[in-house]
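Writing this down once: the sequence line spells out the residues, with the fold written below as integer tokens. This is how one looks:
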Amino acid sequence: MYYLRNYTKNIFEEAKSKRIRIFLLVSIFILPLIAFADFKPEKFFSTDDEILSDDTLVSSENAFQQKIERAFTLCQIARGYWQSGEPDKAIDLLDQAYSNILEIETFDNEDLMRQKEDMRFVISKRIYEIYASRKFNINGKHNEIPVIINKQVQHEIDLYTKGNLRSHFIASYKRSGKYRQMIVDLLKNEGLPEELSWLPLVESGFVVNALSGQRALGLWQFIPSTGYKFGLSRNEYIDERLDPKKSTQAAIEYFKELHSHFGDWSTSLAAYNCGENRVLRVIRNQKTKYLDNFWDLYEHLPQETARYVPKFLAILHIINNLGRYGLEEITIDSPLIYEPLIVTKKIKIEDVAEITGIDNEILAELNP
């Protein structure tokens, strides 16, 4: 909003004639209010007459402002098309706006470079919003993650089924029985794909107290800051990243947030692994593309993240084809059965085991 306020102010200061000021007033303030009615952008704008054509642009910093103005106007018209239920027309105009921005010469002026990048990011974000709204519905209509088998995914399949990760897969798959049904139930309640219940096999091997070198902890491998963001407490007595149910609920909230940003599950999972800001930086650094799926970004992501999504897709493929890989005889562990009990003071696991007669190791597993 800071950019748009200052940009609007600058545009009005630059507008010399009353006609241009009226044009800007309509394009910046009136057009966004037109929604879900009989929206006909051509009634308000003629793309031949009102939007500055490339032929009229002059070389200099004035050309920069004119191209910014043209891109901004295209964005506003695209917004109207989107709100009136015509996303294809909106995408076409945003495509034009983005191409227009790429052509801008900034003359090594840091302020102009910043404005160009800000506008570029706004257009990209608008396109993501449109694609996310029309391609996916987070409330259950989109209920599966497509499994693509390419050379990257096949490499991971080979490692898990006949390479040095086969024993890890078998052990992790067995442990999944303890927690997966609980995870599936929570995912269903939120309308998210059940396939996400297999992500802990990649993250932690379904080891509830798994700790990474980056201090990520638990089934879902939350780092402390992300855990705090999604409501997981951490103090000298508890670390809720270790709580299977609470950490799953936190992971679900994170998935919903990421999916709303990126609109597809593969890119969202990449962001889950390395952070949404890192993925957004990769997207912003693309010179020719603005709407990237995961495979467009693959070579530009950190190596761990680049392998993360192929690993997950490999796991989904193997789970659905256990017999093909000689894994159908694996017996998974039984779900953990327990009732929660609230305690109001410190107590040792050993003392509870002695009083209740429950095995100490079982209590420790239930209270990581």
